[in-house]
Design goal:
Elements (H helix, E strand, L loop, with lengths): L1 H17 L14 E7 L18 H14 L3 E5 L11 H13 L4 E2 L10 H11 L8 E3 L10 E6 L2 E9 L12 E3 L2 H14 L4 E7 L2 H10 L5 E4 L10 E3 L2 E5 L6 E9 L5 E10 L8 H36 L1
Parallel strand pairs: 1-2, 2-3, 6-8, 8-9, 9-11
Antiparallel strand pairs: 1-12, 4-7, 5-6, 10-11, 12-13
Length: 326
């Protein structure tokens, strides 16, 4: 049932994303602009919170992406990592969320320590299954000495060649795979990765940083070449981004309540000349994309029912054991 629903929603989502990059005559809308839409530390949230003002949710994130893609021809969608839920035993939720991110055509996904909760092999298998471009330049397999995931991914966004790379904190908890992995010092890896991206002709470099605010800001202050920084790892939301040297930093907070819009202005050589970032609150005033809303509802209904059945079975076993003891 879930697989059929995923196929249906994929077909519904395709027209919205395929036609937004350019008008009918083939020219790119606003070719001197590049937009980076980012989320971070979503923590497994798929629907708006049960707050006084319901915030967040995949359907609103999809709606914002659609509206931005209709206005700008060069739009990248990224997630800086931390999308796994905080609690254990939620693998079904993880699989669904990664499928949804893939349906949204997410261009690059970073890694937080939360995403290693079930081990590196599990994360690798799920990323491959969902077709998600997961990147992390400094998470290294000890045995091979090579990055566990691709250190970066290069995408052609309209007329701009964009390189996305990820970094995780050097002291991050690497979960069950901690004995087989290590996190290299981020700044040295950043310099090496940026140099390689520029040699490959990348116009714009985007860092998905799971380093926290202070370390992320210190890194881009010391390392040249990052055009846009998505700040993750428990960082508070900021309505406006910061310009650190020549890097535009965005701060989207946690739980998917906000999407950050980083708007970069380019010159004729596709180099960044100015930029700014804003956090968009995914509140009830923003429309939900119908296709994604249907997908989320279908999943949550089935998932909650399976949790209820599992709890009922557990209670029955406990009752049976108690009765046997008497």
């Amino acid at each position: 049932m879930q697989s059929r629903l995923l196929v249906l929603v994929a077909l519904l989502l395709l027209p919205a994303s395929a036609g937004a990059a350019a008008p009918s005559h083939g020219r790119i809308l606003q070719p001197d602009k590049l937009v980076i839409l980012s989320s971070t530390d979503v923590k497994g949230k798929t629907s708006p919170c049960g707050c006084h003002t319901p915030k967040g949710g995949l359907a609103r994130r999809a709606g914002v992406a659609d509206s931005i893609r209709a206005e700008f021809g060069q739009v990248a969608l990224v997630d800086a990592g931390g999308f796994f839920p905080d609690s254990s035993g939620r693998q079904g939720l993880v699989s669904f969320l990664m499928d949804a991110m893939s349906l949204l055509k997410t261009d690059a996904v970073g890694i937080a320590e939360r995403d290693l909760r079930y081990g590196a092999s599990y994360l690798s298998a799920q990323a491959k299954r969902a077709g998600l471009p997961v990147v992390c330049a400094n998470l290294i397999e000890k045995r091979s000495g090579k990055p566990l995931f691709d250190p970066y991914v290069i995408k052609q966004i309209g007329g701009v060649k964009v390189g996305f790379f990820g970094l995780i904190g050097e002291k991050a908890d690497l979960g069950p795979s901690r004995d087989s992995l290590l996190a290299e010092e981020p700044a040295a890896v950043a310099r090496r990765t940026i140099s390689e991206l520029r040699k490959r002709g990348v116009d714009v470099v985007v860092l998905l940083g799971q380093l926290g605010a202070v370390e992320s800001e210190n890194l881009v202050a010391a390392v040249d070449g990052v055009d846009a920084l998505v700040v993750g790892a428990g960082t508070s939301v900021s309505a406006k981004g910061r310009l650190i040297n020549k890097t535009v930093a965005s701060y989207g907070g946690e739980q998917g309540y906000y999407v950050c819009k980083t708007l970069l202005t380019l010159n004729s050589r596709q180099q960044v000349i100015t930029g700014e970032a804003d956090a968009i609150l995914l509140g009830p005033d923003l429309p939900e994309q119908p296709a994604m809303r249907a997908l989320v509802k279908g999943f949550e209904d089935g998932y909650n029912e399976s949790l209820r059945k599992a709890e009922a079975q557990r209670a029955a076993r406990v009752t049976g054991q108690d009765g046997g003891a008497r």
